[in-house]
Amino acid sequence: MMLSRAFLLLLSTKAASAGNLRNAERDLRTRIIGGDKAIEDRYAYAVSLSDSYGHFCGGSLIAEDVVLSAAHCDSSGEGNYNAVVGRHAHDDNDGQKLSVKEALPHPDYDGDTTDNDFMLIFLNESANSNTFVKLNTDAATPETGAAVTVMGWGDVDPSHEQELSSELMEVEVNVITNEECGASDGDFGSYEDQITSNMLCAREEGGGEDSCQGDSGGPLVIKGANPNGADDTQVGVVSWGIGCASTDYPGVYARISSQYDWLRSTVCQKSKNPPSSFDCENIESSITQHDATDSTTTTSGGWNIIVTEEFRRGYGIFTADSKSNRAIRYNSAKGKAGVIRMSADGTSVLKSSQISVANSENKFKVSMDLYAVNMSHEDNLCVDYQTSTTQGEKCWKAMHDFTLSQWETKMFEFDAEDAESLRLRLRVDASSESGDILISRVNIEGWSA
């Protein structure tokens, strides 16, 4: 059941305008209620996103040139604001004000449901700070009942909408199960059918300090022992909820572990100097995207590899469709390491993130290794492609273009003059419900004359 706008309280004006959320049916988090002033420099990774009107969203520094925030803060990816690092009190006007190079919302972010509410912000310059918050990789963490801390710059009293705190505030809350969260109900509506596996919920028992837990995009962390936060682990991103200081409604966060593979692979691909915690040297998704200014890819001619994805550590540049979640990854299957299983019942979709390409390339080649199981002659595997200049699809028919029960490679080419970016979507167009397509590798190449 969707929530009536009449019941929403204290909607973040900037988040609404940046993310086109004026008609949103949920309260995007804007403030800390009932918390305490944080010790200065305790959360050295805390980031304020601000424009000419001031602070509007929070974030966390996860690499020297990368901030993690919420997609609803800038769902269009415009990036017309600064990331302020190292500022405890806004009145002091200290810290670094860094301009945004690229804002990249999660490719499966859903503005209607606020699912996959993640955004990576890449900065034009590196922050001076070398304190980065680590991202949680464990789906079993945090445990139910665990104490977690959220922070932000916001109103300390819900009765004063414009009375923002100058200093960074923090509040401790406790994790609850998604089932308990989904059962939340009160005078202002229900969370029924709105809590997905990409979300995490937390509250303070009895309310009072857990209604609007922090600025949108701010971090939810498990605190470590280091006094500047270097041992903290971020488990969530402040996302949405109903009301402020309510005993009925917990806060809802984007769950880091659910999309860690996308976060890691994107940071490893785009950051100038990813932290060692991302272990980019051993990332096995084999992202080898080239730089458009590299003369070896623009002047030598012939086919150049843009991306090779082998799914050995996750979905890599691809993500399973958030609404169906039926494209399932296995560590190994049918003699291959790293395999995606797509069901033939029409619900499986595998979509890539946006892939930058060199302007000199005017033709592209996509190849993939596949294994078909129990497909009928009416079933198809299709690839939808979209560049900045063209779009189309390529489909292969089972038992005609590919056989069953053996690995084989399928390939197609398409022209795209002056393309700057590329996206792919793999889908199974089938009438049967018992078949599967296994994918173990996707390779994308570009042709430059």
TrEMBL record:
Top-rank taxon: Eukaryota
SMART domains with a match to the protein in the record: Tryp_SPc
GO annotation terms (biological process): proteolysis
Transmembrane segments: none
Keywords assigned: Disulfide bond, Hydrolase, Protease, Serine protease, Signal, Virulence
Signal peptide: 1-18
Pfam families: Trypsin (PF00089)
Molecular function (Gene Ontology), one example: serine-type endopeptidase activity
Residue ranges constituting the Peptidase S1 domain according to the UniProt record: 32-268
Similarity-based family: Belongs to the peptidase S1 family.
Name of the protein: Peptidase S1 domain-containing protein
